[in-house]
Amino acid sequence: DARVTQTPRHKVTEMGQEVTMRCQPILGHNTVFWYRQTMMQGLELLAYFRNRAPLDDSGMPKDRFSAEMPDATLATLKIQPSEPRDSAVYFCASGLVAGGYYGYTFGSGTRLTVV
Amino acid sequence: KQEVTQIPAALSVPEGENLVLNCSFTDSAIYNLQWFRQDPGKGLTSLLLIQSSQREQTSGRLNASLDKSSGRSTLYIAASQPGDSATYLCAVRSGGYQKVTFGIGTKLQVIP
After folding, report:
1. Chain B residues with CB inside 8 Å of A106's CB?
2. Is the Cβ of A80 closer than 8 Å to some Cβ of chain B?
3. CB-defined contacts A:B, below 8 A
4. Cross-strand bridge partners of residue A32
5. CB-CB: which of B31, B36, B99 is closest to A48?
6. pLDDT by residue (tens digit) across A22-43?
7. Residue B8 half-sphere exposure, CB side, CA atoms within 13 Å?
């Protein structure tokens, strides 16, 4: 089965450090999403790419978060500097939008702990 | 702004029961609605996708219905099994950029 690959699976870092999370979308998918999941807020959309171009990153704290797609096989989410309130599970999802819409596939997530 | 609500937040049933999970959304102008399952510490697994023009979708013991005009969807699970225990999330795709908005989820426990 095709899958979305996220690395690392777990990350513990000290406050103030830079964190980079990576996502490899499914080959052929043209849409990539970054979500953050916490117990209190549930799943929150951080950023949304279509054909590698950012369409919407209004859910992302701009001062410390950045999301990019340097090529079609890699999406990155960076936090600099990290803060304890950034502790959450970060999910990447990819899908295909081409005339119709065919659903998402989620990665297994990166569990981030900022101490 | 689209808001998605799932009721109940948690549900505990004995094995073998049929059950219904509810999802409601505030903006009925949706492209589609998707039901996901999430096991503890894991990612999301897609269960069923209903396009806005459809009324329901079925997969095995699962049946999802969509009433766009009233802003509601239900996920029906027949003959529940302990392996069905998980959190079930409803996600709605809507808006100019076709954003996907998730509900908080319903945590289901099926007791053997």
Report:
1. 36, 43-46
2. no
3. 48
4. A49, A94
5. B99
6. 999 999 999 999 999 988 888 8
7. 9
